[in-house]
Batch of 2 targets.
Target 1
Amino acid sequence: MADATSAVPGRFDALLTQLAQQHGGVESLLDSFFDFLHRKTDFYVVSSDPARHKMGFLPGQAQRKVLEAFQRHPMKSLDERNGSAVTVRSVTTTKTTGATAVPTASSAALAGASTAAVATEGPELTEDGKQIPIANGGVAEKYTWTQTLEEVSMHVEFAQDTQAKDLDCHIGPTRLRVALKSDRTRALLEGEFPEKVRADESIWSIESNRTLNISLEKVQRTWWACALKGGPEIDTSQVDSRRSIQEYDEATQGAIRKAMYDQRQQQINGRLPLTPEERMLQEAKNLPGSPFFVLHTTIKTLQEGAHIRCFLPLSLSHPLAGPM
């Protein structure tokens, strides 16, 4: 497997940030990455002659490449960074009932925490100044956010280790307020939602003692332009609204499949335009010598006393295939 060209530093920060936020820590993220290499690439294939087989690596070569990639980036001293290095710890999830949630967690006490947005190169903007959506969401000063038609996820990064028990996170139908229990008068994050949410179905959690994750259940299935009113807006015309059929319930899946089948039948019967491939196949069926030559015949049924026009896939050599 040939070495890939070195990526521009920070080029994939937005994508990798989304992946990191969906994992429980560095170990989980690395495990997913190497699991991908194991299942989808030849990175774990060992060969005594990779050039001849055109795949795989010499014994120990893959391990050396991992070590080389790790050593390509220097270690960072905890003292030099003033304690900003991140240590992966556990995640505590709490469901709110529209009032202040009281979760449990274990870590050092927090003293004067502040919020900071996830480090990225900054979102791309449209000509009218709106953000181009990242995972259908965007980036604000104190948080990042993503969304589906059913829910919104907000992520707040803290400058210091933060326990779930240190936070007062209130999710109401129309508002959000996050503050320290030691200083409830000063909100770390506060604002009004652009649409109503189901407060009793919304939850929040602390990940790695550094990230506050807030999951909001929408009342209306609509795309939000911002997570909180007054925040930076995204261009909702550029959201990815595609949805897998497996995400719907069984009844809806059945209705979708029936609609797809009906549409296909309309195409076959000529009421909708055929694709080029379908048109070619349809024309080939009527060519002399085709095993699927369509024979038009009229059948008189005694039961109905009427003539029914049928399409029978018979070859020209079939006994019933007489002059047209």
Note: Residues 13-71 form one domain.
Target 2
Amino acid sequence: MYYEATNNSPYKVWLNVYSGWSGASGYTPRRYNGIVSGDCPQSGGVILYWNDNYNCDNGEGDPGYRQATSAGSWNTSGAFDDDASSVRVPSGWSVMLFKDPNRGGSSRCRSSDDDNFAGNTFLDGSTLNDSVSCFDVFNNSNCSPYPVTLYPDHHYTGSWCAAGSEGCFYCDGLDNAASSVRVWPGWSVRIYQDRSCEGASRCFASNDSDFADNTFEGGTPLNDQMSSFRVFHNTSCDSPPQDSTPPTGRITSPSSGWATNSCPFTIYADASDDQSGVDRVEFHVRYDGSWHHVGDDTSSPYSISWDCSLLSDQKVDLTIHVLDEAGNETMDPGGYVDVILDRTGPSGAITSPSPNDTLDSSPTIIRADASDSLSGVARVEFHARYSGSWHHLGDDTVSPYTWLWDWSGVPDQAADLTIHVRDIAGNESMDPGGYVRVVIDRSLPAPTNLTATSGSQSQIDLQWDDNSTDESNFHVERSLDGATGWTQIGYTAEDANETTYSDTGLSCDTTYYYRVRAHRHSDGKYSDYSNVASASTHACCADANEPNDVPGQATSISYSAWQHMGLDICPPGDVDYYAFEGNAGDEIIADAMAGGSYLDPYLYLHDVDGVTVLAENDDYNELDSHIQWTLPENGTYYLKVREYDHPFEGGPDYWYWLSLSAGGPNLGPLVHSAHLVDDHEVHQTVGDGDNVADCAETVEIYVTLQNQGLLTANAVTATLTTTDPYLS
């Protein structure tokens, strides 16, 4: 072992004494009978052989070799003593061969293979072949365990004293007794006559096997006169320059932001100084608002165990101060490391689903809130209890915390949901928000708010609210009294999520009752029925000419002075076509009249192709329509009547009259309408009005005439009788 000294204060170095290392770990003697050269080991540490050329054959029952696979010192012993003739040395290793046991006598270093000791000598000039009694193995090529090794005898023999770093040293066992020195390449040693590295001295930058022929630099004898020595990691025995550079360092563990719920914990740091070396690392912690010196370490790796158990939960700052051997100090060289002391569990609760919610289709999203005031939430674990036991569903590490629960394999039952929340410091809160009980129920909720609306004489439209999430479609049933005779009449499209249905082909002026239920194909389940809704189809239409909705169905008529009665636009959207034969030059007069009806008639004249509109009219006389037109050619022409607000209005109360005539010079006027007017209208008394004739009152009758001729009527007379319909 060795000690390092600084500031010219020598450290005592104890002698390393090797006595009888033979048979120590790493040393392998083997015994072979009748061995041949090819059977000798040729690798695996340092190997001494009985014969030259690495041959073990000896004929004396000895293994014929000595093998060491690690550093150490061994006596050859037995028949092998004074019988070694060759050696193998691995690259980067070395072996010191001694003439006498226990590292005694002269020696010789070998750092590579030697296939024949013949002709080689120890340092004292004596023959090496068949003369080795002890050997030291080193895992370096310098035949020395340390950069500087001093020996009590010349030729590097005896119990040595060594130093492995720069500094001033002394050895009690070698005080005034050193006779040789080994120095690694790149190193040097100054040997002093006095303690504390003072007095006469001499520098050695290489090995010296015998101090007897050497002196101190002043000329006095050197052999057996050394009392201390200084080691340098250079070849000139120069002292390092004065250290004015402060050391460096940093905390390596824990890292900034680390959180813990346990005390104590270990703080680790790196520190270095490229000149005098690190003296110590001081550890400091800021907590409860002030800094505290919590401990030091003087050897690398630098660390302390800090007990924080008496502190309250809080964020603390860690730092170090590094001092070197020259007295330089660096405070906070790596900055601060913030650490969170957190022994309080996090909080949280399930936010969805709500207690007593029914789960009717899988999967279900479970949502949760979670928080932690110090270290933060690490993860939220989702758990469910069903079928008598708890099940860990899964975890989420990012807010908002959710888990998609596939419960398709769970039978219908009540289930409890909960969470466990873990924070970054390692604290866990189990069931922080209690349990949320839900019910797994795959039965289908019934549709609601069913309404029925009449669409026409033959159609009723249905609409409802869908309250389920996984139905396949809806089945519709109908009854004539709402209580009995229910019959399924249809269903909505598969997986279309439709909530409407139109029942067609119905009888006019009839009341129908309806109900709806949801159906799921996967398990054949039905929901309960919806409410019952009813509606009546439109009143029946009485127009005997129907259907005449297109030219191909047109009702045939001809020129006539009379009116076609009993016609109607029914149901809403109805259109009536009439066909008549006409000749080129005919001047036709057509009227659609609806006095007293809900109809606002719109009249068209179509050409012989049934498409081209030759004339159209609306509101010629109040709401009535009138067309007067000269036909361009012989052929079949068409009149079309529709409701002005087509196709939104129509029904039995939308009746009208239609007249068609061909005018000429000899045709008289046609009475179109008439009404009674008070002769003294401007002087009427209360109660008087049109179409009201008082006794002995003079009245005027206004008659609307339609001129059917081509000549202008200059004077028109009419004979009215008490039986005339306009006077009834």
Note: The domain at 248-341 is CATH 2.60.40.10 (Immunoglobulin-like).
